[in-house]
Amino acid sequence: MPDLEHALDALAGRVTSLREARTAYPDDLAPTLDATLAELDTAVELLAEAREQLRKAPKRTAGRKDGAQRELKLLRQVFRAFPVPVIVLDGGGVVRRINPETSRMLGSPDGYLVGRSFPLLVDVSRRAAFRSHLTSVLQTGQPSAFETRLAHQGRTHTVQVALTRLTMPGEPQQMVAAVALPTEVQLPEPGTRRPEQSDGALLIAAAKRQDLLVKMGKLLLDEQALLRPVAVARATRLLAAEWADWVIADLVRDGLARRTAVMGPKNLPVAELVRQVEASDPMGSQVVLQVLERRTGVVQEMVDDETLLGFSADGPLLTAMGAGSLVCVPVGNGDGALTLVRGHDRPPFTLADLAVLQEVGLQLGLAVRAQSSYQSRSRAADALSASVAPRNLPDVPGYEAAAVYHPGSSVGAEFYDVFPVSKGWGFALGGAAGKGEEAASVSAMVRGGLRVLSAWESDPDLVMRKVNEALVAQGTGMFVMAVAGFVKGRTLRMSSAGHHPAVLLQPDGGVRYAAGGGVPLGIAPEAETSVETLTVAPGETLVLYSEGLISSRNDRGEPYGEERLADVLARCAGQEPSAVVKAVEEDRNLFSGGQVWDEIVVFALRGV
């Protein structure tokens, strides 16, 4: 086909001239665009002629077949050598062919955009107009030229686009050739190049990913992240500040994904759009459901389906967001999904980003579960603490009462209580030997038993013995030091089971210790208690205290002890019970540098 070969040689020469013209006159592109369109029409005609000749040529003639192959290779070379961006689209706007100049302009690897929807590269505000022009060209066959904006790989271009319908013999579907001449180019910010471009950029990107994991770990391991439900909010704020335009967190509650947090661009007026995203049901999002079902993340370097995140009243959410790329990863092990969206004007998410964000999702899931577990245990600890100490002390006729209670470094096992009994009032103080929830539950059981049995028994010692029988029968293996007393008028009868002796503070500052003693409850079926009867006259104060008080130690390892307690109490002669317990508390804090390891209980009852 010598005529065709001659025509192709001439076309190649004219294309070279157009490339030179574009370089020489960059500010006057309109004539070059018109000439390029004309040459594109010429190339289409030559392609059609070559195809027709190939169809008619005898298939058995090897020489002619080889010649046809040479012609096709030449035509492909012409397409690749065009000095302007040329894209071949099918009727749906999907890229079928793209020349190197287009890839260079958009900053994407050769062939990267093939098979993707080209209208998604168009600025959101002009996307509908582009699709209308495309449909018009396909239906009427009349070329169309217009201005629009393209954004990809962090580059933004204002371009003059020309669309021409291609009708190829033997092709069932019509194609459209798009020529795009840039009139204004906005290059990426420094440091926003694709990480694949250089080893240095690869190292920087890897360092940023590692930095994200470190920052996220610090945020999620902070004590406040366990005490309050702030883990998700903190994580989304960090990701929105450094990694994405939009960050959406959906957590599973009662088997359904529920929108938990939405962060949008801070520099744009998107408050209404944020509310729409917040109101959107994550169960209507294809990508969220996919991640929850498969429990693995997905990344779209170029969003090819704008309906993936669901809809608002105005249409697809991703369209309103101006989404260019998207990544969605699971939170924990099926506990939710974390979705990040970037606009067209930012570099797209990559597989390396997917890997690091999946690790972030795993960390966030662990933090959410730890927070839930911690708060559950905290509520349980609060409940146990409430079961070993009254919220308020009742008014005891003829007396004033006050108490301080400081929990230790773990769930406490000390208790105290004041309660009504027949013809008077009762009190109790003590604690199980041990730490943690089991010890606290045993203390709560003893406290409850003392209170309940005191409603039927008139002697505190009988109450203590029956509680001992019940504790031994329970088989907890724990023993409890306790003291219980009944106050009737000025007479106070006490029963001690291995507890420290009470202190009677005289109005003149004298300090007298009661007998105390006995064997702790729960050791033997037959209780061995110590019983004592005291008289508390007006102005005298009875003080009871826990093991944690006198065993507190200073920085030299010395115990607080009962002698120091007696000295402090002597200085409190004549003071109200509230002042007495406060003085003891302050002195102990001074002695031990404010450290509290075991529970501190101080109870004072003053005759008036």
Automatic annotation (TrEMBL):
<keyword id="KW-0378">Hydrolase</keyword>
<feature type="domain" description="PAS">
    <location>
        <begin position="71"/>
        <end position="141"/>
    </location>
</feature>
<dbReference type="InterPro" id="IPR000014">
    <property type="entry name" value="PAS"/>
</dbReference>
<dbReference type="InterPro" id="IPR003018">
    <property type="entry name" value="GAF"/>
</dbReference>
<dbReference type="Pfam" id="PF08448">
    <property type="entry name" value="PAS_4"/>
</dbReference>
<dbReference type="Pfam" id="PF01590">
    <property type="entry name" value="GAF"/>
</dbReference>
<dbReference type="InterPro" id="IPR035965">
    <property type="entry name" value="PAS-like_dom_sf"/>
</dbReference>
<dbReference type="InterPro" id="IPR013656">
    <property type="entry name" value="PAS_4"/>
</dbReference>
<dbReference type="InterPro" id="IPR001932">
    <property type="entry name" value="PPM-type_phosphatase-like_dom"/>
</dbReference>
<dbReference type="InterPro" id="IPR052016">
    <property type="entry name" value="Bact_Sigma-Reg"/>
</dbReference>
<dbReference type="InterPro" id="IPR036457">
    <property type="entry name" value="PPM-type-like_dom_sf"/>
</dbReference>
<dbReference type="Pfam" id="PF07228">
    <property type="entry name" value="SpoIIE"/>
</dbReference>
<protein>
    <submittedName>
        <fullName>Stage II sporulation protein E (SpoIIE)</fullName>
    </submittedName>
</protein>
<dbReference type="InterPro" id="IPR029016">
    <property type="entry name" value="GAF-like_dom_sf"/>
</dbReference>
